[in-house]
Amino acid sequence: MADEELEALRQQRLAELQAKHGDPSGDPSQQEAKQREAEIRNTILAQVLDQAARARLSNLALVKPDKAKAVENYLIQIARFGQLSGKVSEQGLIEILEKVSQQTEKKTTVKFNRRKVLDSDEDDDY
């Protein structure tokens, strides 16, 4: 096989694998849609949050991206429904973070299952 044929086969196989596994990196229209969505989210958040709150949210996104995404979704939702009177300050963002933390808090319980062990010292051998 020539190098061109081998490269064509590799590209074809790569495209098949990406389509099979749902890898969006192969489809430029999906990438563009994700970019547009991210830009829209950023513009809405820039309008809703002041500078200190944006910095805090970006720091949170580095540490806990799922919690930051939940807060962003909440902020976008209340902004779309017009429930915000002005920009959210850092203190307001902290309150929102506390609300989200309480809602998503995982409660762990520990249950001890003590089994009786047959021990010859406890039994009376009469």
UniProtKB/TrEMBL annotation:
> Which species?
Eubucco bourcierii (red-headed barbet)
Q: What is the lineage of its organism?
A: Eukaryota, Metazoa, Chordata, Craniata, Vertebrata
Gene responsible for this protein: Pdcd5
Identify its protein family.
Belongs to the PDCD5 family.
Where do the record's region annotations for Disordered lie? 14-37
Q: Looking at the keywords, is S-adenosyl-L-methionine present? A: no
Protein purpose: May function in the process of apoptosis.
Q: Which GO terms describe its cellular component?
A: cytosol; nucleus
Q: What's in the keyword line of the UniProt record?
A: Acetylation, Apoptosis, Phosphoprotein
According to the UniProt entry, its GO molecular function terms are: DNA binding
Could you confirm whether the keyword Phosphoprotein appears in this record? yes
Its protein name is Programmed cell death protein 5
According to its UniProt entry, the protein's GO biological process terms are: apoptotic process
